[in-house]
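[job 4471] stage=fold_predict status=RUNNING
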Amino acid sequence: MVLHATRTRGLLGIQVRFLAEAFCKMKKRIITLIIVVFLIIVLTIVVYNKNSKPTVCFLGKCFEVEIAKTDEEKSRGLMFRESLGEDKGMLFVYDDEGIYVFWMKNTLMPLDIIWINSDFEVVHVEKNVKPCINFENCEIFQPSINAKFVLELNSGVVNTLEIEEGKKVKFYNIK
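[job 4471] inference complete, writing structure tokens
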């Protein structure tokens, strides 16, 4: 009888050891799988963000924008351009909110200009702003409320999308 009990314990010991080894191997595989999935997700996000263009959206209608951050880029803006793609625009990005003044000197096409605050809310809109041909009498456009961003789009977009003060804006890939 004692021999039988010892033999059973021996088999149980082997079975327990086998199950423990199998569990360890399975645990290593699960951890490896989790790490691989995590790396794939991270790489996908990095590649997506790197290849994605800066975009500004109003109620699902999005515009690919050029970013004007430096003083030189802001001064030049859309000067001397004869056209702007249908779903394109220029976004002027400022470090702080303030009253930012715009004019159409050397701008060859009419534009809609939209001032946006740091809460991504439209604070002022100028529609169908005409190019300035007589440089001495260029009209100046400015909001009465502070803004952090100014967006220039093709003339008519503001009316088409019914963009007005208080509307929310979404930015994607704006750095």
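[job 4471] summary: The beta strands are 55-58, 61-68, 88-98, 111-116, 122-129, 147-154, 170-172.
[job 4471] exit 0
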